[in-house]
Amino acid sequence: MAGDKIICHCKQVSYIDIRKAMIAGARTVQEIKDITGAATGCGRCVGEIEKILASVCGCKGASLEDVVNAVKNGAETTEKIAEITGAGSACGRCKALVQNVIDIKR
Question: Looking at the predicted structure, is the pLDDT value of residue 3 above 70?
Fold first, then answer.
């Protein structure tokens, strides 16, 4: 997804804004709302936000659930997560989010 794509038109919140909120620990639509203001206008963007929240690595198709499960099963480094899920092994843009999942274990 293009980094400059506006996801929430009411509040002018982009895909990158949402990913940055995820790197800061947001894992729910409510947390995205609190951090970015997205979905606090008309709410039509909630579905798109949910899709973004569910994905960690678009290059390898790794979901947040995949990465969280790998961490719960003992993966403690971004390299180990990459081995298990593929996340972070292609372009590397998701490594900060993967590290955050490792750090907060969710």
Answer: no
